[in-house]
Specification:
With 251 residues, this protein is of the alpha+beta class. It contains 11 helices and 8 strands. It has helices at 8-16, 23-50, 62-77, 81-88, 108-112, 114-139, 160-167, 171-174, 176-192, 196-199, 216-227, and strands at residues 91-96, 102-107, 143-145, 155-157, 200-203, 209-212, 241-244, 247-250.
Length: 251
């Protein structure tokens, strides 16, 4: 979390709560309020996924998300959850990308809750990128290239036939290479939710064998992200996918 000494407005937001003194301070404090609530909500949801007590708990329900959101808002504003709920129902001008970039009037609750979808997209990117990169290293699936003659970055492209082959007979998870790639994808997602210390260990001579202890829900979560045809980021559900700097962009 950012150091409060770096911004006088941040000190105001923390020390005074929702008591503001002028228009400029109100806007600054509200934006900081949203920022801190999003940070706390993201941490709470990540903790929920990592410490899930059952496979189903890996997927936080709407009730759980709303409870964590109210708790985060109440903590930031230092008020009751009832008062925090009222603040979340207010509207304010906030930056958006759709339908076009700019500012628009948005209910604070809806804006803060975007953390849920952003977390899902981030985990999907990590899962799919790890799978594609690993399957390429194992069996040479995909081709590295540059998107343009002037570009300095490289992308790993899977053809439609390669995607179909991985989906055929669920080989992306039943084939030996597919299983190895899926386990690597699982390990990367576990690391993304800060679960490596509690879920992943190395055993055997020279600590060469990786052991992953997690809920079935964690594995299902990762495999679904890699293969789901309803997921726009899933590498196996689109004709072409690019890997670059740990992220995938469907084409």
């Amino acid at each position: 979390m950012r150091d409060s000494r770096a911004c006088p407005c941040l000190v105001l937001a923390i020390c005074v709560g929702d008591t503001f003194y002028n228009t400029d301070d109100v806007r600054c404090a509200l934006l900081l309020f949203i920022f801190f609530v999003q940070e706390l909500l993201l941490k709470a949801l990540t903790d929920e996924i990592r410490t899930a007590s059952s496979p189903s708990a890996v997927y936080p329900t709407t009730e759980v998300v709303n409870a964590r959101l109210l708790g985060a808002s109440s903590s930031v504003l230092k008020v009751s959850e009832e008062e925090a709920a009222q603040k979340l129902q207010e509207k304010m001008m906030l930056p958006v990308r759709k339908p076009e970039k700019g500012m628009t009037l948005v209910v604070v609750y809806q804006y803060v809750r975007r953390v849920v979808s952003h977390l899902g997209s981030s985990l999907t990117s990590v899962a799919v990128a790890a799978f594609v990169k690993h399957i390429h290293s194992l069996q040479g699936t995909g081709t590295w290239s540059s998107p343009s003659a002037s570009s300095t970055r490289r992308v790993l492209k899977l053809s439609a036939d390669e995607c179909s082959e991985l989906l055929s007979g669920d080989s992306f998870i039943t084939d030996a290479y597919g299983r190895l790639a899926m386990l690597d994808s699982l390990a990367k997602v576990i690391d993304e939710i800060d679960g490596t210390a509690s879920m992943v260990s190395w055993t055997g001579p020279n600590k060469a064998s990786r052991v992953i202890r997690c809920r079935y829900g964690h594995f299902a979560n990762v495999s679904f992200r890699v293969s789901s045809p309803r997921n726009p980021y899933a590498v196996l559900s689109v004709a072409l996918c690019f890997f670059w700097c740990g992220r995938l962009v469907p084409v």
